Amino acid sequence: MTTSPPIPSAPSWPYCAHGADPVGCRGINVSGHTDCLTHLADTDRNAYLTSLSPALTLITAARPSTKT
Ligand SMILES: [Zn+2]
Question: Ligand 1 mean position to 45 CA, how many Å?
Answer without folding.
Answer: 12
